[in-house]
Design brief:
331 residues, alpha/beta, Rossmann fold, 2 domains, three-stranded antiparallel β-sheet
């Protein structure tokens, strides 16, 4: 609450004087007594006790009227957000090798895919103003989510990423081509694909470099991520009895191709050998691709003098009403 004309509150200094001038009376005794002791023992009537109500009501009315003149106001703020968002497609490898457990966090054993899902989940939550899509690929690509601003729905789709839902293999070129196709008609200021894989392109009719050239032609920047350690890694696979068994596999990532894909499109290649490294990579991409946000703030004021004015009118009215009774006729 603020006052439009706070200097008018100086008038409050005049309130005691105005009350005095209105209720001063020439107090001359009507009857002379030689001894007033007998009168002092007479209990005063209610009208005598209530007489101070009149100047109090008058003074209160003056005070409230002065506050109303000072125009109390409540400041209200509104803001308008204009964001030049970025269209981003997350392209994730869901081939069987993503079940390897070399990206585990601390003592918790998790697969490469689970580590990716956790980090992607966090990445999406930080991109409030961007449209994001999701493409999964193995031997074939599959669009899990077209470009959308519905972050809750996107997070649900990330949670459904699983190996075995697509024919096994690693079609990096096809995966990128599908992601690029999702951005083909985008008119966003910046268009980005973040592709994560843990293998070598061995399926699909489109080579990774040809897909990267298509992305370059459409002004789409591609960030590539090689996920996993080098050498032999453990991986749990289903067994014939409905459980799982641990097998050992050789981890191999075509870093040269992933680097070229990024270079062609003006992006960057990253290598994640542990969970913290993977999280740091997505954090860096988040910093590199900043959304331009402009916030226009507006401030306006709502008048709040009316309650004070009404209260002043009520005080003056009560003072006038009581003045017409015996209270107003007392000397």
């Amino acid at each position: 609450m603020i006052l439009r004309y706070p200097w008018l509150l100086l008038l409050l200094l005049l309130v005691p004087l105005l009350v005095y001038l209105r209720y001063r009376r020439a107090r001359r005794p009507a009857i002379r007594f030689s001894d007033g002791g007998q009168l002092a023992r007479i209990a005063p009537s209610w009208t005598v006790l209530a007489q101070p109500v009149l100047p109090v009501l008058y003074g209160l009315g003056l005070t409230l009227a002065i506050i109303a003149l000072a125009r109390p106001q409540k400041g209200l703020e509104e803001s308008s957000i204009r964001a030049e968002g970025i269209d981003i497609v997350l392209c994730v490898d869901v081939s069987t090798s993503m079940l390897a457990e070399d990206l585990s966090e601390g003592i918790n054993t998790i697969t490469r895919l689970d580590a990716c899902k956790e980090v992607v989940d966090r990445f999406i939550k930080n991109r409030t103003y961007d449209r994001i899509g999701l493409v999964a690929f193995a031997a074939l690509p599959f669009t899990m989510a077209p470009l959308s601003l519905d972050l809750d729905w996107l997070l649900q789709q990330v949670g459904t990423l699983e190996t075995g839902t697509l024919p096994d293999g690693t079609a990096i070129g096809s995966g990128l081509a599908s992601a690029v196709n999702r951005l083909r008609d985008s008119d966003a200021k910046s268009k980005v694909v973040i592709l994560l894989t843990d293998g070598v392109n061995n399926r699909g009719e489109i080579t990774p470099l040809n897909a990267a050239k298509a992305a370059e032609a459409l002004d789409i920047r591609v960030y590539t991520i090689g996920a996993g350690t080098d050498g032999i890694v453990n991986m749990k696979v289903p067994d014939m009895f409905g459980g799982t068994r641990t097998v050992r596999m050789r981890s191999e990532i075509d870093e040269g191709t992933l680097q070229q894909m990024a270079d062609i499109t003006g992006g960057k290649y990253f290598r994640a050998r542990d969970f913290d490294g993977l999280r740091a990579i997505y954090d860096e991409i988040d910093r590199l691709e900043k959304t331009e946000i402009n916030i226009d703030q507006y401030r306006y004021f709502e008048e709040r003098f009316m309650p004070f004015l009404l209260a002043a009118i009520i005080s003056f009215s009560l003072e006038k009403l009581f003045a017409l009774t015996r209270l107003g006729r007392l000397p």
